[in-house]
Design goal:
Layout lengths: L6 E3 L5 E5 L4 E4 L11 H23 L6 E11 L6 E11 L17 H7 L14
Antiparallel strand pairs: 1-2, 2-3, 4-5
Pfam families: OsmC
InterPro entries: KH_dom-like_a/b (IPR015946), OsmC/Ohr_fam (IPR003718), OsmC/Ohrsf (IPR036102)
Protein name: OsmC/Ohr family protein
Length: 133
């Protein structure tokens, strides 16, 4: 293992989450104007940071020093047929002066651990037995 952190949340969506590394994060509901990060913002930050770092690593390994960016959008939706909510995550990125043909595009998706995590579809608490995810 290269790194591990545990988030301990006793206050729900509005409050403070303690991390095992001593840091703490203030959280808030996405539909209010209070300070703090909401889950959608944290997911967008994690995905964009991971994909950007992976893209930069791939470009560096190929000896390319190009400007790049990653945009990640996280939308919160209500489940249409069952109680609960789900996230729709969309990403886009660009790196200048590299791609002559689409087949030459390095894929950050192949190296970043987040899509593999997302592949294991999370179930809402209302669907799980004994409150376990």
């Amino acid at each position: 293992m290269l790194y591990s952190v545990t988030a301990h949340n006793t206050q729900g969506i509005d409050g403070t989450v303690q991390l095992s590394n001593g840091k703490q994060v203030t959280t808030s509901h996405p539909l209010n104007n209070q300070s703090g990060f909401n889950p959608e913002e944290m997911i967008a930050l994690a995905w964009s940071t991971c994909f950007k770092a992976t893209l930069d690593t791939i470009l560096k390994e190929k000896g390319l020093n190009h400007l790049s960016y990653i945009d990640v959008t996280v939308d919160l939706h209500k489940e249409p047929e069952i109680p609960g909510y789900y996230f729709a995550v969309k990403g886009a990125g660009c790196y200048r002066q590299y791609v002559a043909r689409r087949s030459q595009c390095p894929s950050p998706r192949s190296s970043c651990p987040l899509p593999r995590f997302q592949a294991h579809r999370c179930r809402s608490l209302s669907q799980s037995k004994n409150g376990a995810l």
